[in-house]
Amino acid sequence: MLCAAGTAAADSFGGFAGNEKAYVLGREKACQALVVTAAVARGVPSCHAASTEELAGMSLKTPAPQKGGEAEVKAAAKTRTITITARTGEVLVTWSAPDPVTSIVDVWRSTYGRIVAVEYTVRRAGREVHEVVAFDLGVGGGAGGVKPPDGGGGGPGPPDALPTVDPQIARAAVKARKASGKAAIAAWQKVMAIDPDHSEARYRIAVAYAGLKKAGDAVAALEALVASKRPDAAEWLIEARFDKAFLKLVADPRFRTAVGYDRPPSTPYERLMGLGGQWEQSLTPCDRPEMKLTLRRDRSFRLDFRSVCEGMRETFSMKGTWTRTDAAVELLMKKAEGNGMDSAPCLLTQDGDEDVLTCHVDADLVFEGRPARR
User: Fold this and answer.
1) Single pTM value for the model
2) For 69-83, 227-241, 332-346, which range has the lowest pLDDT when averaged over its residues?
3) Burial of 255 (0-12, 13-18, 19+ CB in 10 A)
4) 277-282: long-range contacts (C-beta < 8 A, 24 or more apart)?
5) CA geometry: angle at 154 spanning 371 and 270, to 5°?
6) What does the angle CA 263 – CA 235 – CA 166 come to, to the nearest 5 degrees?
């Protein structure tokens, strides 16, 4: 029996995988949600009969259906089209079912808002049949995704990324990175002759001035970054907090103001990276592994794992890239077999006055990290 929406028999919703990469129908079918692109999903879900071991490893979560005024997402149907909207009214996905839809029964939303499942009814062979379809909205779940806690700052937006670089500017920057001292200043000024508000150029000029013991000029270059409207300017200012080139300026009030040492974080990026981009989970022997996650400005990451139990030790590392959407983060890494990518959804929340980054690395491995002050 197939589990696609057009089958004559149907299965009940059985829960979402803990890592929000799949969901279950009935007691034996694991399914992949339909990927949503530009608020549209197509086709029918792909499912397979799962073993008891596979289902046990999915760490299934079965949330209550979305109901009433507190619902984060809602679903409506017209003829064959199902439309899911966020509480804000934004359309998250539209999908055309194989058969005319007579009613919406229930809607479920995964913990981090990545997957939304809908149970609906159709008329087939003179009787009412219940079907289930689920949609993968991506990390953060669009407007229906997890919102930052109060004080978290930052508005919704597309996944962040480093800016696209003009080839001419890129070539000039490559040459400038090889220079030092006064030559570096001159080289980066050539970059700024092409792009007057180039964030890295301003930063590297500040580094060069600091190396030449011209503290005032170094701070002035960083203050120009503060005034910049470039999205990556703030990222370079956070980078300056931990650059050894500015070690002798840490006590300078102008420097501290420029890099934001003495104010609370105002954006999700600053919450992630403002203390150095390092997150740690402490070790509890035989219970919880030690895990250290390092996020870098270039969107690469490294995750180190160490477990200890009754004399047995295990260590390994993972590397990949990361991206951010509002209060959510996604870690991307190559699959062990080298074909395709694995993703680990993460959620940035607060515990009292401290940030917590929780990542479902796989069905059996959850990282709950707190910032490590560098």
Assistant:
1) 0.61
2) 332-346
3) buried
4) 278/371, 278/372, 278/374, 279/357, 279/367, 279/369, 279/370, 279/371, 279/372, 280/369, 280/370, 280/371, 280/372, 281/367, 281/368, 281/369, 281/370
5) 30
6) 155
Query: How far is the CA of 367 from the CAs of 277, 296, 364, 372, in angstroms?
Result: 15, 18, 10, 14
What is the Cα–Cα distance from 248 to 303, expressed in whole angstroms? 31
What is the three-state SS of 90-108? CEEEEEECCCCEEEEEEEE
More confident residue, 40 or 139: 40
Is the CATH code 1.25.40 the one for domain 167-264? yes
Domain boundaries, the chain: 13-144, 167-264, 273-371
Give the span between the Cα atoms of 112 and 248, in whole angstroms. 43
**Per-residue DSSP letter, 140:** T
What is the distance between the alpha carbons of residues 239 and 232, in angstroms, rounded to a whole number? Answer: 11
Sign of CA dihedral 54, 58, 64, 69: negative
Contact status, residue 313 vs residue 293, Cβ threshold 8 Å: no
Quick: pLDDT tens for 198-214.
999 999 999 999 999 99
User: What residues are paired with 84 via a beta bridge?
Assistant: 75, 93
Listed ranges 65-74, 165-174, 201-210; the one with the highest mean pLDDT: 201-210
Alpha helices of the chain — where are they, by DSSP H?
A: 52-57, 167-177, 181-194, 199-211, 215-227, 233-240, 253-259, 268-273
Residue with tokens 């696609």: 4
d(CA 237, CA 230): 12
Its sign, for the CA torsion 193, 194, 196, 202, is: negative
Residue 154 burial class via C-beta count within 10 angstroms: exposed 0-12, middle 13-18, buried 19 and up: middle
Q: Which CATH class is domain 273-371?
A: mainly beta
Residue 2 tokens, joined: 């197939």
DSSP class of 339: S
Q: How far is CA 307 from the centre of its chain?
A: 26
Q: What is residue 201's three-state secondary structure?
A: helix
